[in-house]
């Protein structure tokens, strides 16, 4: 799966993102709008992880999607 598909179908994927990262609020998901940089930034804020770790988490999530 590539990120363009996530971005184009964010309404479908935001539920899965919220399931994976429960600390994301509905407002966060609305603001992200499928943009990877926004997702990574919000995850850093909510979970207090380093940028590299967040990027890896997002990559792993992307690989897990079918």
TrEMBL record:
- Look up the signal peptide feature and give its range: none
Q: Which domain of life is it from?
A: Bacteria
Checking InterPro entries in the record gives: CsbD, UPF0337_stress_rsp, YjbJ, YjbJ_sf
Q: Which Gene3D superfamilies match?
A: YjbJ (1.10.1470.10)
Could you tell me what this protein is called? CsbD family protein
Pfam families xref list: CsbD
Cross-referenced PANTHER family, in alphabetical order? UPF0337 PROTEIN YJBJ
Q: Which residues form the CsbD-like domain?
A: 4-55
Q: What is the lineage of its organism?
A: Bacteria, Pseudomonadati, Pseudomonadota, Alphaproteobacteria, Hyphomicrobiales
Q: Transmembrane stretches, by residue range? A: none
Q: Which family does it belong to?
A: Belongs to the UPF0337 (CsbD) family.
Entries under SUPFAM superfamilies matching the protein: Hypothetical protein YjbJ (SSF69047)
